[in-house]
Amino acid sequence: MIKVKVPATSANIGPGFDCLGMALSLYNKFYFKEIEEGLIIEGGDPEFANESNLVYLSMKKTFEKIGYKCKGIKIKIEDNIPASRGLGSSAACIVGGIMGANEMAGRVLGRDEMLNLATEIEGHPDNVTPALIGGITVSISEDSRVYYSKINIAEGLKFYGFVPEFKLSTSEARAVLPERISYEDGVFNVGRVSLLISALVNGEFELIKTACNDRLHQIYRGRLIAEFEEIKDACNKLGSKGVFISGAGPTIMSMVEKTNCSFYEKIQRILSKLSNKWEVKEFELDLKGATTGEDI
Ligand code: HSE
Description:
Elements: E1 2-11, E2 20-35, E3 38-43, H1 54-66, E4 72-78, H2 89-104, H3 111-122, H4 128-133, E5 136-142, E6 145-151, E7 157-164, H5 170-175, H6 183-202, H7 208-211, H8 218-221, H9 228-237, E8 242-245, E9 252-257, H10 263-271, E10 278-283, E11 291-292
Parallel strand pairs: 3-4
Antiparallel strand pairs: 1-2, 1-11, 2-4, 2-5, 5-6, 7-9, 7-10, 8-9
Helix pairs in contact: 1-2, 2-3
Bound molecules: L-homoserine.
């Protein structure tokens, strides 16, 4: 049996719309077996226990690319990444399917080829890159190829995700974005995303809060996320170094210094008094990305 483990991801990180992303210590696991015929899917959402399953579709694309004739497939999904919450559950399914198919076909594709294919399926590289490579990554796609770089960030930060019980689909969150932005807003984001990367590398954590400001998506999407402003304010008051919408939302992320020991308890107390139900998740950065093997 082939086993693949893929981390959750948080894309954008404020101003890095469609290009920044980080891999988190929360994982989906996938188990694959080639069978005589047909498709069997166990685990995951029962609505997708059929040919419309994203893991299966990604496997099919991979087999087409490689030219591998698979007789039939059994897929078992252990999904710990909540769906439609901005934590890269789709990216995890895509990467899991591609990696599983590649293993089945005899490891024909290298990681970069798998990344190009994953980006083709997902449409943007900011979740699939950290899901495959791990860490915090910058990635862009040009001429059907992904160019990426892993950011070696300074030690000292931990990451919290505030995951609501309500969902927000990426398509809904992309539909509220404008078709055009002003030159001024473009310049605003270029400066902040550059500052953010430099501050993360140098450990200049005081700069992160301002560097996380954004005019490409958060100002539009914030309105779709109930209690976003309240949570942002509470995080800032508790010494958070940066607050941003995770991917397309609705999860909200906060970067906090490891020395801020009371943050978790205090923010949990505040969130428990809000109208919606929010789960607080503490994450480490995942530095490896997707892995395969017996010991996943
Ligand atoms: N960059 C994407 C977005 C991530 O913000 O729409 C969500 O898939």
